[in-house]
Design a protein that fits this description.
With 171 residues, the chain is α/β, with parallel strands linked by helices. Helices cover 40% and strands 18% of the residues. α6 (137-145) links the parallel β5 and β6.
């Protein structure tokens, strides 16, 4: 199946959990877009595996933020542990993982890429702001792991994608 077909056929269930992978502020933007779309979700920037209970999908918003990690009083390694534990719990319970990378170029590099890697490689679906994949990293992960990938040109487009993914579902 082609990546395009996978993108068009991918659906997920509500309620879903939104959490940043790297304590970035981009997750708050995803929360706002999900609210505007009328979707059923929980936002928790410190979500742990037990937070996944009663959720059918995990949305990881990838990209590290030194300011966000500092404000949360969490170091990079502790945040990676948190994300790893969430991914393991989601996989154990057959919960789909959607990874969103909407921070563009500023959420790439030494701090961000470990969060991007673990989030992307374990996703069922990738939503990526196009200018954050100039090196083709997310495209390569999608190809290698056979993960559906959709590029967006503007962050606001992510809300429409979420509506489509959670198609015909109400609160």
């Amino acid at each position: 199946m082609s990546i395009t077909a996978m993108v068009n056929e991918f659906t997920a269930e509500q309620p879903f959990l939104i959490t940043p992978a790297g304590q970035n502020p981009d997750a708050m933007m995803v929360k706002i877009l999900a609210q505007k779309a009328g979707l059923n979700f929980t936002y928790d920037k410190f979500a742990m595996p037990d937070t996944l209970k009663n959720h059918k999908t995990l949305v990881l918003v990838a990209g590290g933020s030194s300011k966000g990690l500092g404000a949360a009083n969490i170091d990079k390694d502790k945040e990676l542990e948190r994300i790893n534990s969430l991914i393991a719990a989601a996989k154990k319970d057959s919960i789909k993982i959607i990874t969103m990378h909407i921070g563009g170029k500023k959420r790439r590099g030494k701090l961000s890429d470990p969060f991007n890697r673990i989030s992307a490689e374990n996703a069922s679906y990738l939503i990526v702001l196009k200018d954050g994949d100039e090196d083709g990293y997310f495209a390569e992960v999608a190809k290698q792991k056979k993960i559906a990938l959709i590029y967006i040109e503007k962050i606001m487009e992510a809300g429409d994608i979420l509506k489509t993914v959670f198609i015909n579902q109400t609160k």
